[in-house]
Specification:
This protein is an alpha/beta fold. It is built from eleven helices and twelve strands. The protein is globular, with a radius of gyration of 23 Å.
Amino acid sequence: MSEKLRVGITHGDVNGVGYEVILKAFEDPTMLDFCIPIVYGSPKVAAYHRKAIDCTTNFTIINNASEAQKQKLNVLTCVDDEVKVELGKPTEEAGKAALDALERALADYREGLIDVLVTAPINKHTIQAENFHFPGHTEYIQERVGDGQKALMILMKDELRVALVTGHVSVGEIASTITKELIQEKLTIFEKSLRQDFGIGKPRIAVLALNPHAGDEGLIGKEEQEVIIPAMAELKEKGMFCYGPYPADGFFGSEQYTKFDGILAMYHDQGLAPFKALAMEEGVNYTAGLPIVRTSPAHGTAYDIAGKGVASEASMRHAIYTALDVYRCRLADAEAHRNPLKKQYHEKRDDSHKLKLDEE
């Protein structure tokens, strides 16, 4: 628990703000007291961005994660140094560089060379390739290192944690995608993550409705009555504390979200629009449900401000902090449950107590 964790950081789209927020995050040398950072990318591109934003952050160049030094920002060469940087522009060359860094980082994770992964933003279109046909980081990482487990996207800042039933799904497909089984799957992953990754003993989860006004008892839509409520009812019977479904507008507008440990939204913008309005600056995207601990800033490539030196590093810094916290929380949870006590006779649901009375 006291050892410094090795944080793999992929550089993302080289034409966006990835390097800027990474370099700015480690401009404060105290960040190096908490971890050993390894940036997967290109030293030449890192130097280009450093000059563009007039940043003073120093880094050391390595060719293998095993060479990473303590108290240094390590940049691991895994991308062609001649990659052309065109600030603010989406290009196939930048997409390939983003994928090369991600593949190397995941390979090193499988080899045990890094403990957690933090990903800088990518362009979901330019990164598409023969071996990348996914709508985003989350789905790709799930396939590569998920070991058959399902991922859950959680956007978080402090006590505000918003998870999604459907992620990168078109609006026209949302209603048909949401099923009782999918809601139960996401709620189960969410509740487990809140317990193991955040140390919440008995999480309280709010579930948002799909339709306006929660369907108005079927007048606007029947998904609440036919899908969402039955899904929640079965999990409640098993002991889960889930509540709702709540109309999304009133739920956030009245600050009901402050009363829960987690919020499950039905679709991407329903959860992320209010979240980013409340917590864009320091928000973190956390991929729950997988063996790997992976986080990223809540913002995108921000092409419009790339290279101008005005991007905030707060979200990247919090993504790193969150990855470290979740990893250690998992260790603590595993240690706490390593040798569970055998159930005493009075904890078992049988007639042991009657037998004892008969003996007396």
